[in-house]
Design a protein that fits this description.
The structure is a homodimer. By secondary structure, chain A is an alpha/beta fold. Chain A folds into three domains: 309 residues, ANL, N-terminal domain (Rossmann fold), CATH 3.40.50; 73 residues, Roll (Luciferase, domain 3), CATH 2.30.38.10; 99 residues, GMP Synthetase, Chain A, domain 3 (2-Layer Sandwich), CATH 3.30.300.30. Chain A contains 15 helices and 26 strands. A nine-stranded mixed β-sheet of chain A has the order 2-1-11-10-12-13-14-15-16, sandwiched between helices. In chain A, strand 25, helix 14 and strand 26 form a beta-alpha-beta unit. The longest helix of chain A has 17 residues. At the A-B interface, helix 1, helix 7 and strand 16 of A face helix 1, helix 7 and strand 16 of B.
Chain lengths: 519, 519
């Protein structure tokens, strides 16, 4: 029966004396990390935590974040990673909804603590920062030192390993219950198409609370690789760390890759050690991917598609299928093929498979699919109806099994009765050399129902008029898909904690007092 | 819930119009093979077979053998592949033990049919050869044509998919129950370290009844690759087929590889298309591996270790860990590291993990481990005690997690109280340039209990005396391990259906009237 801790044991088996984690000058071997996790689990048990208890974390990236994941799995406690961009009332909601009685926190979030602590059932706060442990809290390292190391509690199989909340920044938040079996299945399944091993050095730059980076935490561990951490993503710091640590791989969301390739240091940085970049969590504009392939000369870029509910990987793009030119160049926009263990199909509203090339809902089934949403049996049953996870994403499949994500159902624009996929319009805008970043949304329109509206930030020192950008789109996509209005802005677009552009926030001012219809 | 047929559906999803099978001039696409399997399942259902019924097969390799596997899985029938080297009483035993009511057979085995048919409960014989269907039998292709295609019966998860018998040629035969979940887990797990894809062309030369080649049947299908078949292994024919079909990969047992690299045609054959050779099922002498690496210039040789009870893969040798020279050259003898989904440990008699470097029993647990032995609950419970599959193989693990198989417990020789691993002595003999093949066994000895005895066949045109060969061993291994007697023979060593040297047969004449103690 699969266990999350099995990944940690495998790292020790393959690379016990090898470097497991490097963070802020601290270096530890896999044997040390395994021992620390067993002791941290013992320390938590000593505080009274029982298997099944929920222990949350609100922290920036660090080696202690990795230890938190594995110590919880070791002790049978459920991990509940919290989005670092939440406001205190949202944090309080996640903590109370999950029933968390413990919280790991670092100095970045101490100021917010008084605003939510009393609204929760927290009994113990564990400080996992670098400063001195505040009064009234336990220290992460002190718990490790106190221990004692306990035996693995044996949580496994269909037992919930953790709750990953989605929708925290917009809409109703839901705690996705991922089991030990889900997370191990995802790790093994992902390894069929990625190549992390004991020689890999992985940089954690995307936030560790998010399932995308959590997955890389697990991939890197089951492979016995080395993990290097940066507290939060910053393009200049990222570019400095790659040559310093001879980083070989990691995960970025497209927004981060866009910032890296547009950063002035990219041209002078030695990125030759970098072999494998996994990207996902939101669509990658083709123009950005092409720039990235130039900037990272030795790097295989592997697109992953999935969602938290799938633990999360559903498709991966095999490098041998990618074509940068020629008749199959359209594959640059594909999200990949179904991973071997996950059955992915495009279904219609009655859950029948649609013909290849037809847009439907991307659905999946397999050992990686979540148990359900925490305390939401009706929503769980609806999302998992007929044995399929319904992603809410529109997509189609070509004759080679490649899946093309057209849009989140909620981001699709219905204008004059035509479906417009915002990602496709954004692709066209990103193909313009002056565009640094953009978002395309539907806004209310008396004539068309919704109107295609674009928000664009230009690159520093570049110029383009609104009309020129709209005209540019007409050269690439059909007229009904082109923006009918376009706004230039100077400030960066708002991002979620995971680095996705927050379209809900961009849409909000247009929809005051108007209800938007979403499928 | 995992299904064997999921692999077939994935092949159609990725490569529906691509070549699935090529055999004796017949070529079929994956869409055609899927359709044929659904129709063959329908034809079998029309004969009265019900889900859960056992349908055996006794045939040489062909495209129809692959269809048999997937049609059985599709209809929910259990496949029971039969060793092609069995004598009629042994065949009768397997058929009655499994309770098979159907049998696929080809012309190679028709002559033996009268000798066992009446001793079994067979109700239908399906002829899967190329000749006209004999009277009283169903034709494989006729069943496909009659159909109709039926819906997948939905057998999945922990439901038994098939019975793979082991020990048929020696000792008591046991039907290993492998579930749909076991076989899919093995396929996904194996793909983490192999690289079959839709561009692969796989040659089936090892017998398809054996779990080793059955695994490649499943690996190649979940990857959407092309399968090419030769009825039975022959080194000259094999070498001719590689360039003709641009074969990219396949599985051979070491005996087969030894025959290939010793064949005169190997020097003049274009083997450049061959990328990935998986080998396993018995130890690979290092000298043979070195010759093979020279003979196949573009080929990655990946050693797989496991057993039928593990569906079957437990360890694989990652190519980046292999070293042909230098301080890590000893890794050439390693069987690889634990595959990600299978927890492999070396345990002592009390199932405690032994220190690295200490010989113990190789044990495994994970989603690939068998449900048990068919109708043998006590043996199942013993073999799977404490949650571990006990392989009966002796081995040790190094600091990098590499597993070294020292010997089958039953092949280990205890001489004067010292354990001698026959594989190690054979390694030494194979290092002699005149040795074509050899086997080392324990024979009764009044002084030592067992004596190390070697049986050697020399290469054509080469000469070496018994004494010279024994002296050669002394230069490589400790005196107590060296053969104390050695017999040269001219005829090839006896092989099992899977191509393993039959040591039991070589031992038998020495042990008449004497009982051999085996751990």
């Amino acid at each position: 029966m699969p266990q999350v801790t099995q990944m940690l044991r495998r790292a020790v088996q393959l690379n016990g004396r090898g470097l497991a984690t490097e963070c802020a000058g601290r270096k530890r071997t896999w044997a040390e990390v395994r021992d620390r996790c067993a002791r941290l689990a013992g320390g938590l048990a000593g505080l009274g935590f029982q298997p099944g208890d929920r222990i949350a974390i609100l922290a920036l990236n660090s080696d202690r974040y990795l230890e938190y994941y594995f110590a919880c799995a070791w002790g049978g406690f459920l991990f509940v990673p919290i989005n670092t961009r939440l406001a205190p009332p949202e944090i309080a909601h996640w903590l109370t909804d999950s029933g968390a009685t413990g919280l790991f926190i670092d100095e970045a979030f101490l100021p917010a603590l008084p605003a939510f602590r009393d609204k929760t059932g927290l009994r113990h706060i564990i400080f996992c920062g670098d400063a001195a442990t505040p009064d009234g809290m336990q220290g992460h390292d002190a718990l490790v030192q106190a221990g004692p190391a306990i035996d693995d509690a044996g949580a496994r199989g269909d037992t919930v390993a953790g709750l990953f909340y989605t929708g925290g920044t917009t809409g109703r938040s839901k705690g996705v219950m991922l089991s030990h079996g889900n997370l191990l299945a995802n790790a093994v399944n992902g390894m069929t198409m990625l190549s992390f091993n004991t020689n890999s050095v992985i940089l954690h730059a995307a936030p560790m609370f998010h399932i995308a980076d959590a997955t890389v935490t697990l991939f890197g561990t089951i492979a016995g690789a080395t993990h290097v951490f940066m507290a939060r993503f910053d393009p200049a710091a990222y570019l400095a760390m790659v040559p310093r640590h001879r980083i070989t791989g990691g995960l970025c969301v497209p927004t981060m890759i866009n910032m890296l390739v547009n950063h002035p240091d990219v041209a002078t940085t030695d990125l030759s050690s970098f072999r494998e970049m996994v990207f996902g969590a939101s669509p990658m504009p083709e123009a950005v991917l092409r720039r990235a392939l130039q900037a990272f000369p030795n790097t295989r870029f592997t697109q992953a598609y999935g969602q938290t509910e799938a633990a999360p990987v559903m498709t991966l793009m095999p490098p041998e299928m990618l074509a940068l030119e020629g008749p199959k160049v359209g594959r640059l926009r594909a999200a990949g093929i179904a991973t071997p263990a996950c059955d992915v199909q495009i279904l219609d509203a009655e859950d029948r498979e649609v013909p290849r090339g037809t847009v439907g809902e991307i659905c999946g089934r397999g050992p990686n699919i979540m148990l359900g949403y925490w305390n939401q049996p009706e929503l769980s049953a609806h999302t998992l109806r007929n044995g399929w996870l319904h992603t809410g994403d529109g997509g189609w499949m070509d004759e080679d099994g490649l899946v093309y994500v057209v849009d989140r159902v909620k981001d699709m624009i219905i204008s004059g009765g035509e479906n417009v996929y915002s990602a496709e319009v954004e692709e066209a805008l990103y193909a313009h050399p002056a565009v640094a970043e953009c978002a395309v949304i539907g806004v209310p329109d008396a004539t068309w129902g919704e109107r295609v509206h674009a928000i664009v930030r230009l690159k520093a020192g570049m110029a383009a008029t609104e009309q020129a950008l709209m005209d540019h789109c007409r050269t690439l996509i059909a007229g009904f898909k082109c923006p009918r209005s376009l706004a230039l802005r100077e400030e960066p677009l708002p991002l979620s904690g995971a680095g996705k552009i927050l379209k809900s926030e961009l849409r909000a001012p247009f929809w005051v007092g108007v209800t938007r219809q979403v499928n």
